[in-house]
Amino acid sequence: MAGVLLGLALLAFWLYSLFDVITTPEEDVRNAPKALWLLIVALVPLVGGLFWLARGRPLTAAARARRQPGGPRPPAPKGPDDDPEFLRELDRRMRGGSDD
Fold first, then answer.
1. Which of 66, 63, 55 has the alpha carbon at shortest distance from 29?
2. Which of the residues 7, 21, 22, 48 could staple to 40 if both were Cys, CB 3.0 to 4.6 A apart?
3. Transmembrane residues, as ranges (predicted)?
4. Closest by CA position to 52, among listed 63, 64, 38
């Protein structure tokens, strides 16, 4: 029973990796051409899939930002309670000065 579950998990991982390679745009693939990644994942299921996830899959935006420590960081999102203009407008409305 454990062997069957392990086999199904391996098959699921292989299919996931294969589908991920196929659906990733060519320009986003890292370290090797997409066709080579497809062959690696198809012919060496477990190891190829692990290599794909570690070395071939596109980086997320957060991972790209971590890899470029010297680059400018985008401004942090500002909530309405941190925006002075919003607070002035809210104060004006609460005092009854709204002309709406």
1. 55
2. 48
3. 35-54
4. 38
Separation between Cα atoms, residue 71 and residue 52, nearest integer Å: 27
Instruction: Output the CA angle 34-40-45, nearest 5 degrees.
Output: 130
Contact between 30 and 55 (Cβ < 8 Å)? yes
Determine, yes or no, domain membership for 32: yes
Specify the pTM: 0.59
**Residue 53 falls within a domain, yes or no?**
yes
Q: How confident is the model at residue 97 (pLDDT cuts 50, 70, 90)?
A: low
Q: Are 65 and 73 in contact (CB under 8 A)?
A: yes
Domain that residue 19 falls in: 2-67
Amino acid making up residue 63: A
